[in-house]
Amino acid sequence: MSSLKSLSLAGNQLNGSLPNQGFCQLNKLQELDLNSNFFQGILPPCLNNLTSLRLLDLSYNLFSGNVSSSLLPSLTSLEYIDLSYNLFEGPFSFSSFANHSNLQMVIHGSDKNKFEIETEYPVGWVPLFQLKVLVLSNCKLIGDLPGFLRYQFRLTVVDLSHNNLTGSFPNWLLENNTRLEYLVLRNNSLMGQLLPLRPNSRITSLDISDNRLVGELQQNVANMIPNIEYLNLSNNGFEGILPSSIAEMSSLWLLDLSANSFSGEVPKQLLAAKDLKFLKLSNNKFHGEIFSRDFNLTGIAILYLDNNQFRGTLSNVISRSSWLMVLDMSNNNMSGEIPSWIGNMTDLTRLVLGNNSFKGKLPPEISQLQGLEFLDVSQNTLSGSLPSLKSMEYLKHLHLQGNMFTGLIPRYFLNSSNLLTLDIRDNRLFGSIPNSISGLLELRIFLLRGNLLSGFIPNQLCHLTKISLMDLSNNNFSGSIPKCFGHIRFGDFKTEHNVYKPMFNPYSVYLVKYLFFSAEEHRDEVDEVEFVTKNRSNSYRGGILDFMSGLDLSCNNLTGEIPHELGMLKSLDLSYNKLSGEIPPELIGLNFLEVFNVAHNNISGRVPDMKEQFGTFGESSYEDNPFLCGPMLKRKCNTSIESPNSPSQPSQESEAKCHPLHQPLLASKMVQFY
């Protein structure tokens, strides 16, 4: 194959290292594409023999080691090179490309942050190339933008995201490169104001999110970037009123202004931008009635309005948005009832209305949203009984906590084999846990704290083997802790992540559009839950939930002994019950246990030795167990201490902490009523 000019092995499952012999003798090779495989090891030095190479794509593999600065200088015919998403590390001097006069596209993106590209050595070097595409994402660039960019005038795509670049916004880069279409500077440390830009008719995507830019947007911002399609200014310090001219960007389909300090009302013209598909105004100071008759976003698919000061009701003008998939109105001043017509918005996959002032019942029509994956109506004043949601087969996260729901948990409440989170804390539900809950086999987080539930904890919960957080505290459960809880591993399992490796056409300048500008990156399903540890309610969000494991059965009427096995827990709270017997010595083996509390029970015997993890727990973890002894409690263990024959009565302190509203009496009256 010595005459071979083009070799593509992209998108297979090939592994191993590149051979030193044979492979490097293809000295007529012009195109070498190995992307999206499992190749590993260092690059063979003989690659520098392939002096005819115009295209070299090694992206999405497991290559490691240093990219030698002596390897690339000889490949002066290169037009395209992509080293993205490997395991390369160490420094690499970009001046190695200085004499590559044909070079047009350089792409390197990484999520390992061990590959450092040096752009300023030697000082003042001048390139012979004129790039069209430059992607240096997460390459440890520090300080001002690379100096060689001052000599570039044909750029169409620039991505310098996830570095530590400083200085002001580079207006000069846009002025020098009138063909620039995509500019991504997100997650750097750019400072100062966004000064007026010279009108640029080519730029379609601008992402300067996660920087330190401040000030107000220019009134004529639409004239500066008239053909903009993607505009992301999120996570900066922008402030002031949003200029109405922003609605004059007729091609705009994605606008993200979240996490700034914008204030005032949203311009009416923007609410009528029919081509807008994605709008994110989260975490600002916007106010006013957002769903007025001016609302006419008929093409909107993703709408984030959370964490503002919007008021009003869920007007039926929303129904004009027939493509709406995501609606997040949480943490505002919305009021009224959740309308029954919400069930007609059948494209919704994410509905978040938490922390408002919605009242009334949760309409049963909401169960018509069969494609819904995330439902949050928490922290409102919703009342009545829970509707059956068994038709929501794709539901992953359900948050109903902090309302006034009453009655029994429906026997056939849920039927989603995908459900990961079920949070119905702090309501007024009573009765027992229905056995049908055991069918939610993928459930990771199960929170029932602060209701009026009673009866035995059903053994069927042991079928939920993937549970990591379970909170049944502040209820009226009785009986013993199911021994089969030892079969629940509480988070000790591996989560499989499917990694998608996109395939690219290396000659298309638009290849970068998918990688860096897809709105999919905004449609995260990041969940957030509260869990009490050390008497404090803490919120846990996103990836950290994969590492949390806890069981809270405190403030109930549980009796019997503590099971000898309780999974790989980090937090275990059994306080304020009527448990007896000794602390099982097997619990000492829970090396990751950070919180342990058996206070206010009838536990007897010796406190575990103050070694390993149990040496970190204080006296408060064992208090009000008069028959416990040991150095920790300054109470000697001797024959005069006898185990209790009967459970002690709850103390006033217990009643105050666990049942501030005398919930047992209330539960009794509700059961009689039903």
UniProtKB/TrEMBL annotation:
Compartment annotation = Cell membrane; Membrane
Membrane topology category:
Single-pass type I membrane protein
Keyword annotations: Cell membrane, Glycoprotein, Kinase, Leucine-rich repeat, Membrane, Receptor, Repeat, Signal, Transferase, Transmembrane, Transmembrane helix
**Chain intervals for the UniProt region annotation (Disordered):** 639-658
Sorted alphabetically, which Gene3D superfamilies does this protein's record hold?
Ribonuclease Inhibitor (3.80.10.10)
Q: Name one GO molecular function term.
A: kinase activity
- Which domain of life does the UniProt lineage start with? Eukaryota
Any one Gene Ontology cellular component term annotated for this protein: plasma membrane
Composition bias of kind Low complexity appears in 640-653
| Signal peptide, first to last residue | none
Q: Which InterPro entries match?
A: Leu-rich_rpt, Leu-rich_rpt_typical-subtyp, LRR_dom_sf
Sequence similarity: Belongs to the RLP family.
Please give the name of this protein.
Answer: LRR receptor-like serine/threonine-protein kinase GSO1
Organism listed in the record: Vitis vinifera
Organism phylogeny: Eukaryota, Viridiplantae, Streptophyta, Embryophyta, Tracheophyta
